[in-house]
Amino acid sequence: MTVVIIDTACANLNSVRFALQRCGVDALVSADAEHIKAADKVILPGVGTAQAAMRNLHQLELVEVIRTLQQPVLGICLGMQLLTSWSAEGNVDCLNVIPARTERLQVNQLPLPHMGWNTLSAVGTDRWLPFNPGDYAYFVHSYAVATNDYTIATSHYGQTFAAMIQRGNFYGAQFHPERSGAVGAKILKSFLELTDADTRA
User: Fold this and answer.
1) Do 19 and 26 contact (CB within 8 A), yes or no?
2) Which has the higher per-residue pLDDT, 129 or 50?
3) What is the CATH code of the structural domain delimited by 3-199?
4) Which of the residues are catalytic?
């Protein structure tokens, strides 16, 4: 199996690569369109702002490449937000492969960013949910995806937000599975084991 981590030039790619190595997979870090299109699985990580990340993807000529991928794709943290239609972080249009919007968290007096461990709750029972209710994952973010029909898991910090989303072969995790211990490893392993039939759900 070939796994490509897209080099967005705005993420800690080594932490994702090392987490995949612990799952038995030696992933390729690349911004080459042909490598990405040929991979069995693709991971889109991201740290920083949506505006900067989308600018990088446009400069790398990867926007349409990502939009047309047919294999399983996992967006992590900012990478998940990039899968949505639009982000308030810079008022920027994103990849628009999952119809959702990314807004600044409304947390009242709670500090931002939302940083640390928080629980996951499943939405529905008929989708890919490789965790148990109440499992903890590690979050670092100030913006979040609003919940909608494509939300498969939620978390709560001042408000309920989408912790995971899915549409077809595109999956997103707002948290960092590579930093979420055994739970994160299980999620990454389950993603690596996805089949074409799974992505049609």
Assistant:
1) no
2) 50
3) 3.40.50.880
4) 77, 176, 178
